[in-house]
Fold each of these.
Amino acid sequence: QYSPDSVAGADGHTDPTEITFPGCACRRSSCVAPQCPCLLRGHGPRPGEQPFSGPVFECNSLCECGERCQNRLVQRGLGLSLQVFRTRCKGWGVRALQPIPGGSFVCEYAGEVLGPAEARRRAKARSPREPNYILALREHLHDGRVMETFVDPTRVGNVGRFLNHSCEPNLFMVPVRVDSMVPKLALFAAADIAAGEELTYDYSGRFNNLPEASRERKPLEEENGLRKPCYCGSRSCASFLPWDSSLFSTP
C-alpha cells in the first residue's frame, strides 16, 4: 500500500500523525530565528546546506506562519521526478529523471513506525532470502540516552523503500521532526545528481559498515549467513550490506 507519509504500525506503539508540539505565533510569511520557537528547537533543513548533527525541527500545522514559510520543506513531500526501475543485479532501484542540485530534499523513507519488540519480531520472522526493509534509526542524545525509531515499509510505504544501498552514496538521511518527536526520515542529495543517475544512500549511516571495520573484525559465522552481499560496485565497497544484529538478539 502506497503512503507518502509514515503511519502507525500494527502494534500501535507509536502514532506519527499525532501532533504534540505547540505551534509558533509568527505572523509573517517565513519564520526567522531567534523569534520563532520552532527554530529555537533546532535549525530547519534548507536547500544547499550540508548535513549536521544538531536536531532539525520544522513548523507544523498549528503554527500561524504561512504555508510558504522556509521552515516547511520535508512536510511538503516529494517534488521531484523519480522513476522506479529494474537494476542489473540489485532488484528494484530508483533514479532521477531530472538534475538534482546538491543539498536538495529528495524524498522520505516512509512506512509503518514500530516499537522495538514488533521490529525485532518481524526481523526474526523473515527468512534470510526475503528482503528486509526495516530501518533502525538511533539518535544519541546529549545526556547519553539513545532514542530509537523503527520504520518498516514492507506493507505500507513510499518510493523510499526501493532505494538501494551504496558504500559511496549520493543521498544522506536526516531525521526531521514536524508534529512530534517521531521523526520523518528525510533523504537529501549529498552532491549534484545528474538525470538518469541511480539514487542511493548508506544503510548504515557510515558508522557500522566501513571496509576497514569489515577487514579487522569479520562477522561471526552465523551472522555471516544472514548478511547479504553488496553489489554497489564502489571502490570502497564493504562487500556486505549493513546488518543490525541487535534486531535478531534477545533484548
Amino acid sequence: MPESSVQPGQLCCVTVSKWWYRVIIHRVINDQEVEVFYPDYGNLKIVRKSWLRFLKWCYLKLPAQAIPCSLAWVKPVEGTWSNAATLLFKELCVSKLLVGIVDEYVNGILHLFLCDTSTEEDVYFHCVLRDGGCADICGENIPSQGFKELNPSALYVQPSGKQENAELVEPDLSLQQESLDADSETASSKLDGDEL
C-alpha cells in the first residue's frame, strides 16, 4: 500500500503466516509498523506496514464478525477497571470454552453474563470479580468510562440501522471516511457507510 493510504481508519487486509485477515488501521506506530484492529476477531495487533494490502470490494461489504460486548451487572469498584481486575478477567478466559448468557443488547453493546461450565460447579465471572474485590454488582448495565478506548471494536463495529425492538442484528463496519484518501487506481474508491 502506498504510504499515503496507511492512515487510521483505513480498511485493508494483512497477511500473517500465509493467511489473510481483514484489518482496520488503528494507529501508525512508526515508519515500519502500524497497530491494526481485526474487525472479525475484535483484537488489536502490531504488524509491519509491508504486510498490508488493499482489500477487494467484495470483502469490504461483509459485516464485521466481532460484536462490542460488556460484562453484565458489574462496575469497577473505583472509576475504572484496575490492573488486578483486568488480570483476573483474563485468567478466567484463558483457553476455555465459555457460556455467554445475553442480558440485553443496547446502543450497539451486547451485555452478557459469562460462565465457565468446565468444572462441577458453574463459575460466573461477575461473582468471581465481586468476590475478588475487583467489581461491584450493580444490577444494571453501565458501560465503563472509556469503553471505546478499552474496547476498540466499539470504535469500528456499530449496529446497522435495521435494529428494531432490541433484536440482535448484523453489525456494519463503520470507518473514519475523512481519513481514507486514496492515491492509486486500486484505492480510488472511498468507503461509504451506506455502501458498507
